[in-house]
Automatic annotation (TrEMBL):
Protein name stated in the entry: IS1595-like element ISBbi1 family transposase
Amino acid sequence: MNIFSFTAHFGSEEDCRLHFKEQRDKEGVVCKRSGGTSHYWLQGKWSYECKGCRFRTSLRSGTIMESSKLPFLVWYKTMFLMSCTKKGFSTNELQKQLGLKRYEPVWAMVHKLRRAMGNRDARYTLEGMIELDEGYFSVASKEIERGKGTRGRGAEGKQNV
């Protein structure tokens, strides 16, 4: 997806919110109080209401966007910018590109997205013949557990292969 098709699909806050609701409906919403899976959609409140206990769940609740006041459009633009380039963006650069004044919410959003992307990548395993130039892998070692690892800059706790 290039920037023009992204802007065509997700040009407004409403477009992003509707897309997020569609994805949330596909996954299914589970009530935090009763564990029920059947909900009413409250259009005016932009939230779900459990049919069993009438507990309300916001659209963001239970997702990485939970407890964030940033608009859906900012989240979607950040996801696009983080995934469209090989090298990625620093948090400062994202803050400038998104036109936001404060650094802290952007930093929290980027860390949540990186954690979610890492969790997604952990599900996949490589098969067959694999060729690497160089890599660092975690190793279990009693020296490291006792605190006798190398000091300073380096790959402490990693083994060069």
